[in-house]
Amino acid sequence: MIDVDIIRKEFPILERSVAGKPMVYLDNTATSQAPLSVVREIERIYTHSRANVHRGVHTLSQEMTDLQEHCRMRVREFINAGSIEEIIFTRGTTEAINLVANSFGSFFKAGDEVILTVMEHHANIVPWQLLRERIGIVLKVVDINDKGELDLEEFKRLFGPKTVFASFCHVSNVLGTVNPVKEMVDYAHSRGVPVLIDGAQASPHLKIDVEELDCDFYAFSAHKMYGPSGVGVLYGKKQLLEKMPPWQGGGEMIGKVTFEHTTFADLPFKFEAGTPDYIGIAAFSKALEFIDNLGLENIERHELEISRYAEEKLKMIPGIKIYGEAQYKGPVISFLFNGTHPYDLGMLLDKQGVEVRTGHHCAMPLMDRLGIPGTVRASFAVYNTLKEADIFIEAVRKAAAILS
Ligand code: PLP
Fold it and tell me: pTM, whole model, 2 decimals?
């Protein structure tokens, strides 16, 4: 069970005020706040153990390496990957997807087709467009229905003899739609096509089991999971990662270097060039511990209780239109008021201490598809309360009255 009062004590930032009002933080989809255990771990390392990893026999370097590698083990358990060789640390979801587009994408040739969906974040669009510019691949895009659910029949129809890859989000950062990723992976595999799942919006809320999903790649970011910024994970199946060429070159990722020839390190280090954010990675362990202690099922249940309550109340305000009403939906509400610009509503909410995100949410093609410039987006985490949902609704009511 979730005891929000106890949880909130772990997040001192939630006690601050904005515009003279108690702050209500509802921008968790962009970044969730970090508990004291994460903050203290960062401080502890800076004041006690900071040293570069994997490069020294001295005590501090070994301590730091152990902390980083301990996190790799925790991540492996967290997503039920087969081995730690399948866990690659990146700067975030974006870098993880770029890694796959650049490395696995080097196997593609002109005319090969990659399937995406219209609800993708730019992080899962632009790397494929860059590849299109470089080698001439073709992008195919799956549409959504009126509720914001993927058109699965179209997804299946888009597969053809030239399809080489499919890359789609687990949960939409705008619509909240939870996609039927297992069914999508199974279908892609039945056509011999490997897949990447962008799990940036799923990993904070849903239990991820990459073995069960059988996906080839899975990407996510620590800062959306109560962890530090600058850290992300790419899970990849070992047999694929082994065949893939390195993407970035530098320290850590090599076996032996001469001016004539370089051999590469074994997995996962082949894909981890340069000094990683080892302190962030070490502190990410504490975020995973925080999630594990609460239990993802409990987190999800709590967040959905608050977000559904807020959504029902929001719908009762005349002039409000909700974008994204999928049957399976995460704790995200995107909405607009009577054709007014999302920034105006967002500014009026900020003046009341309510922190929501406004704009295109790095999903411009989805905004084009919906025929709007952007939305106001409220997104919920485990520390949010029903009382905060009420404050949010009241703030929207007041803002709507001003904008009318
Ligand atoms: N994919 C989705 C669905 C996202 O919501 C985000 C961030 O909001 C990203 C990718 C990019 O994540 P990051 O900026 O942490 O790399």
Answer: 0.98
